[in-house]
Design a protein that fits this description.
- The complex is a heterodimer.
- By secondary structure, chain A is mostly helical.
- Chain A has one domain.
- Chain A has ten helices and no strands.
- The two termini of chain A are about 25 Å apart.
- The longest helix of chain B is centred in the middle third of the chain and has 16 residues, at about 165-180.
- Chain B is elongated.
- Classes of the chains: A mainly alpha, B alpha/beta.
- At the A-B interface, helix 1 and helix 4 of A face helix 2 and helix 3 of B.
């Protein structure tokens, strides 16, 4: 237990020491999205009744930040350790694959939730938010960060250089979050793209999270919850199996 | 008596390349053991398997009686490894890293020992410096401190003095000798054979993933008693009878190095030179050192 606690603390300190880059930067980016998109689209787009576009956008931006930063934290920490070779500092001690998994994912969740909280604090001023189901807000944020932390860990294990992490981030995570209904409701899409969106697990994360605020969503929140729990279970089981086998970590 | 290390028929294959082909050896508790071999012989691979950084394709390894796979927690607690590469974590200071490493081994409030390590390794002044700012020699000492933070009974050092200046080398060996006297088992790889000769009680030599010699250092040296006779001829040609034991001297051009397998061979060699009408300008007799033994074993095991 002491080993896990120390490892988690080290992972938290790692991103906190560079908080300007890992926390403040993403918060500013989201604020800019909000200012620009709401300026352009306010009064032109109505998604849910009685919810203006800016208010609709805020939960989406918060969730997008949670997801992207949870992914970034786990993947960048691991790939940096692998490329610089200091991964031996955690591979030599008696830390189990469970402890390493839990440490990386928990730190990724904290980073995702801290950035998400920051985005919420700076964007909420511009919106007229309600909190229909606060518990759902928390549950979806926590689950979303856990899933993306796990996927980030897989990317970090698989990648051998920074370039591959960037590819994973730019060609999978970024499009999947961007097209998950952060900026629009998928119900406004043509049938085909609506069906495609329903195959994107990120869509359920954003949709369920938004339900917590407005009590309205594109699909039943319970459906979203089940999709997320299944995604997390599969991702975690797969990642733990990889780590247990020593894949690309213990040659 | 417990064995500090037990390596039983360990093989390791990377794709089609066999890095280790059935290595077996035992290191007793308290020994100072040397693992020698040319680059690519498999020394680092073997250390990686002992440390759990790599997994053997075949065979078993245990540290202080604990299997490195089935009982990895106990095995890793008993082991301190100083890696060959000068790795560091640029996010943290010396003290932070040593506290983290202590925590990974389940130790809390280890600062007294950390301070002692820092003092012994001459790093006290750098305790709060970022590890990125350390010089190469300091990074090496930092790695040693990290390997010792949990006071492991078995310490493995993979080329700890590569690229380290003479003064620091002396300090390092004094410290490691003290650890050995205090009961720690030391396993060492190095390319500096004079260091191995001076420090190690027993030596294993690896070549192409196999052990080609494993004995007490003194026995290895005795096995090839005699030495080399260095001669520079003022006039005359080397008689053909001596050609098989002659190698050109690498240091002084024109000087010849004649292998003297035992000291009673010395007189016939000189006689052969005299009979051939050679006039000796310079002559020097060198005793066998580990380097000779190493070169000969590596050559003979072809």
């Amino acid at each position: 237990m002491q080993g896990f606690k120390t490892f988690l603390y080290k992972e938290l300190l790692r991103f906190w020491k560079v908080a300007m880059q890992t926390v403040a930067g993403p918060v500013l980016t989201s604020l800019l999205y909000l200012l620009v998109f709401s300026h352009v689209l306010e009064n032109r787009v109505t998604v849910f009744e009685n919810v203006n576009y800016t208010s609709f956008l805020v939960p989406g931006l918060v969730m997008m930040s949670v997801l992207q930063n949870a992914f970034a934290n786990a993947s960048s920490s691991l790939i940096q350790s692998k490329v610089t070779g200091n991964i031996v500092f955690v591979l030599l001690p008696p830390l189990s694959h469970w402890e390493l998994f839990a440490g990386y994912v928990a730190a990724a969740m904290v980073r995702g939730l801290v950035v998400g909280g920051g985005v919420f604090l700076v964007t909420a001023w511009f919106a007229d938010l309600s909190f229909a189901h606060p518990l759902w807000i928390v549950v979806f944020a926590v689950l979303g960060s856990a899933i993306l932390g796990t996927i980030g860990l897989v990317a970090g294990i698989w990648a051998e250089k920074f370039d591959q992490i960037a590819a994973f981030q730019n060609f999978i995570v970024m499009p999947a979050t961007f097209l998950s209904g952060v900026f629009y409701s998928v119900q406004t899409l043509p049938d085909f793209w609506q069906a495609v969106s329903h195959l994107n697990p990120f869509f359920y994360m954003v949709d369920g999270f938004r339900y917590g605020f407005f009590g309205a969503s594109d699909v039943e929140p319970m459906t979203s919850l089940v999709v997320m729990l299944c995604t997390l279970a599969i991702a975690a089981a797969g990642t733990l199996a990889l780590m247990r086998s020593g894949y690309k970590l213990r040659h | 008596m417990t064995l500090a290390l037990e390596i039983d028929d360990v093989a390791k294959r990377y794709g089609g390349f066999e890095a280790l082909r059935g290595v077996s050896l035992q290191v007793r508790e308290g020994e100072f053991f040397g693992l020698l071999g040319p680059n690519g012989a498999g020394k680092t691979t073997l250390i990686s398997i002992i440390a759990g950084l790599a997994r053997a394709t075949r065979g078993r390894v245990s540290v202080m009686g604990h299997d490195v796979v089935d009982d990895y927690r106990a095995a890793r607690k008993a082991l301190g490894v100083v890696p060959q590469e000068l790795v560091f974590d640029p996010f943290f200071t010396v003290r932070e890293m040593l506290r983290f490493t202590s925590g990974y081994y389940g130790l809390r409030r280890n600062d007294d020992w950390i301070d002692e390590l820092l003092a012994n390794l001459d790093l006290t002044a750098k305790a709060d410096a970022n590890t990125r700012t350390l010089s190469g020699g300091m990074k090496r000492r930092m790695l040693i401190a990290q390997a010792l933070v949990h006071r492991p009974p078995v310490i493995v050092l993979d080329e700890p003095t590569a690229g380290v200046d003479v003064g620091l080398r002396q300090t390092l060996w004094a410290f490691i000798r003290r650890l050995n006297r205090e009961g720690h088992t030391i396993v060492l790889t190095t390319h500096y054979l004079e260091e191995a000769q001076e420090l190690c009680e027993r030596i294993a030599m690896l070549k192409q993933g196999q052990i080609v010699a494993l004995d007490r250092t003194s026995a290895l040296l005795r096995q090839f008693s005699g030495g080399r006779l260095l001669v520079k001829l003022a006039s005359g040609e080397l008689p053909p009878a001596l050609a098989p034991i002659c190698t050109p001297d690498e240091v002084v051009p024109g000087r010849l190095s004649l292998r003297v397998d035992s000291y009673d061979r010395l007189e016939p060699i000189l006689a052969a030179l005299r009979v051939a009408g050679c006039v000796i300008e310079e002559m020097e007799l060198l005793h066998t050192d580990l380097e000779d033994v190493f070169v000969r074993i590596m050559r003979d095991s072809n």
